Amino acid sequence: MTRRTPPRRVARSVLDRDSPDVARLLLNKVLRVGPCAGRIVEVEAYRSDDPASHSFRGRTKRTEVMFGPAGRLYVYFVYGMHWCANVVTGAEGDGQAVLLRALAPIDGLDVMASRRGRTDRLAEGPATLCQALGIDGSFNGVDLCAVDAAAPAPIGLYDDGVPPPSVPVIGPRIGITKAVDVPWRFRVPRVPA
DNA sequence: GGAACGATCTGC
DNA sequence: CAGATCGTTCCC
Fold first, then answer.
1. A76 CA vs C1 C1’ separation (Å)
2. How far, in Å, is the CA of A3 from the C1' of nucleotide C6?
3. Which domains does chain A have, with CATH numbers?
4. Rounded distance, CA A116 to CA A141, Å?
5. Are A180 and A51 in contact (CB under 8 A)?
6. Which of A1, A70, A90, A158 is the most exposed, fewest CB within 10 Å of its CB?
7. Model pTM greater than 0.90?
8. What is the pLDDT of residues A172-193, one digit of tens each?
9. Pairwise CA distance, residues A103 & A180, whole Å
10. Strand B, CB < 7 A, residues 95-124 of A
């Protein structure tokens, strides 16, 4: 993937809208955590009026960040061993987020490979993505749209000029048991060349 | 206080 | 296809 423009941070205003819309916009954006970076190629949208969402049952200690302002990272622990990361979207109080499901690695491949214990499929799946980038609970709530001194490592969401796909692959979300037919998973299609 | 259940991944 | 493994949530 050729970088077309110098990377610049994604503006918070881009994220301050409905998560299914933000989900499409996040495709092909770049997430950087320390020395590692990758292009976002698969995401899922969640909303508070959505039975599959953590925010569906209202504000709790865990979902506090999800109800906060757009642009922060919502990190949660699941299945007793995995971390998953979301970008919070919408207005403060909305309880919306976009789950990051897969990245195409750009920088820090060696670090990612070391953390993953393998050299292929470095960031395919929400939990492996977090493992590859070193994202854990200490990253919960960090701001992706500005330098966050409280973050465990330099982190941010960037636009390097590569636009979202005009026609993303759309499908149902993975691993949920409610609202299983809602088509809020979005993926960058495999490009012809 | 206790139990059920995950927005998953890996290896068999 | 089942096991790993534990925080969060909800019910008694």
1. 26
2. 41
3. 8-187 (3.10.300.10)
4. 24
5. no
6. A1
7. yes
8. 999 999 999 999 999 999 876 6
9. 23
10. 97, 99, 116, 118, 121, 124
